[in-house]
Amino acid sequence: MPRPLKCRRVGFVPEAVYFKPAGVPGRELLEVVLTLDELEALRLADLEGLYQEEAAARMEVSRQTFGNVVAAARRKAADCLVNGKMLRIEGGAVSAAGRGFSCQACRHRWSISFGEGRPRRCPACEGSDIRRRGGGPGSRE
């Protein structure tokens, strides 16, 4: 019996979850599922350019596990690009960090959970110039 998957920390949840070749109806395409933890591994390794050790620490997994996850994600992405398949992002054993915001008027910083919607006012000063803080867990801003 395989070991149960440990939850992996992800720094964001994408709004767009389907990607497909232009001009071909989705129902005619084979579909590949990329899990949220695989997407996070791609983001950390290839977009942010982190070394595996640091990326693994952000996801709260071992370096070996991170390497396996990012390798699987790269195979799936390459399969979609080379073979013209549709990519769907969903699932995985993940725990999502909250989204961070800051007020430009008073410099107050706070986080909210995914799915709560964008705040319209600062909870400290009621200012409306709100900015999203970058990254996820352990991000440098």
Write up this protein.
By secondary structure, the protein is α/β, with parallel strands linked by helices. The protein has two domains: 8-95, Arc Repressor Mutant, subunit A (Orthogonal Bundle); 98-132, no CATH class. Helices cover 29% and strands 20% of the residues. The protein contains three helices and eight strands. Strands 2-4-3 form a three-stranded mixed sheet. Strands 7-6-8 form a three-stranded antiparallel sheet, with no helix packed on it. A two-stranded parallel sheet has the order 1-5. It is globular. Residues 135-141 have low confidence and may be disordered.
What are the salient characteristics of this protein?
141 residues, alpha/beta, Arc Repressor Mutant, subunit A, 29% helix, 20% strand, disordered C terminus
Ranges with pLDDT <50 over ≥5 residues? 135-141
Succession of helices and strands: EEEHHHEEEEE
CATH class division of the largest domain: Mainly Alpha
Can you count the beta strands? 8
- Give the CATH topology of the largest domain: Arc Repressor Mutant, subunit A
Question: Nutshell version of this structure?
Answer:
With 141 residues, the chain is an alpha/beta fold. It has helices spanning 36-47, 52-59, 63-83, and strands at residues 8-10, 18-19, 31-34, 86-89, 94-96, 99-103, 109-112, 130-132. A 3-stranded mixed β-sheet has the order 2-4-3.
